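BUG: 3D viewer hangs when loading the predicted structure for this chain

Environment: internal workstation, default settings.
Expected: structure renders.
Actual: progress bar stalls at 90%.

Input used:
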Amino acid sequence: MTQTYDAIVIGAGVMGASIAFHLAERGLKTAILERTVSAAGATGHSSGLVRMHYDLAAESHLTFASYKNYFNVWKERVGGECGFQQTGFLQIAKREHEDKLRGNVANQQKIGINTSVISVDEVQRLFPDLQTDHFDFAAYEPDSGYADATLTTNAFLESAKRNGAALIQNCEVTGISQSGGNVTGVTTTKGDFSAPIVVNAAGPWAKHVGALAGIDIPLVTWTHDVAFLHRPPTLGKFPAVIDDVINCYFRPEGSALILAAGEDESLRGEAPDAEDQTPTPTFLDKLIDAMVQRIPKIEESGLHSIHVGRDGITPDQRAIYSGT
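C-alpha cells produced before the viewer hung:
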C-alpha cells in the first residue's frame, strides 16, 4: 500500500532534519526517510563549528542568519537542546593573507556580525595558552563557538514530529518515480511513498540518490579524520580555532577533551558506503606536530579516540544555493 505525503525528505542528518522541520512547520505532511538511523552519517561525525567567518558573502549571510535566528534562541525557536557552547571563534591567517582577512571581516561587519581583527597581543590576553608564532592578526567572533550536531538533528526531528512529520528509519530509497517530468514519489525497502515534493538531503549519498532521478549531481565523497585528545589539566580556556598557518582546526569538547583535525589530510573518492574506520596513516603524527606549535601543552595530552567521517562536497566545496 502506497503511503501519501505532501513532501518527502531523503536523509535524516542535520540538513534533512532542518528541511523537515521547516516543511512541517508550514503545514506540509512530511516524511523523513533514513537508510539507517538519524545522524548516523556525516552529521554524527561533524565538528559542529558555529562561526560566520567565510570568504564568500553568501555563506556569511547564511551562517549569521543560522546563529541569530536559531542557535542564539534555540529553545524558543526549535525546542530541545542543540548543545551550543559560546566559546568564541578565532580565524588565524597567514601573514601574506592579512589583507584578505581584513576584507572578509569588513564585509561581515556590514552584515551585522560581531567580529573584529585583533592583534597577537590581544589573542594572548584572551587565551594565554595559545602560542602566537607565525601570524600577526586574527579574526575574532566572541559570539561563536560550537554545537552538538546530533542533538541539533534530534531537536529538529522532534519538533517536526510534533507538527505531524513521520521519521521512518532503516528505510533505503531504491527508486524515484516520475510522470511527465515531475517527481511523484519514491520506492524504498519499506514500500512505496507518494509525494509531489522529494528533497534530496542524503549527504555523501546524494549523488546516488540524484542518479535515481536521472540527475548527475557533481559530488564526491570527502573522507575526514578527526581526533579527540585528552585535555591537559593545566590548559586554560581557548576558543574554536581554524588555523591556516598550521593547517588544522580545533575546539574544546566539553571540559575534558579537545576535538582537532587537519586541513590537508582529507581524501576524496566515490565510495560513501565504505565502513572502514581506519584513519590516514600519517594523520595523528601530523596533527600533533601542528597542534604543539599552537598549544604547547598538547604535549601533556593523550589520544582518546579517532573518528573517520564522510560527507559529500561539490567541486568548489561551496553549497548549492539554487536549482541545478
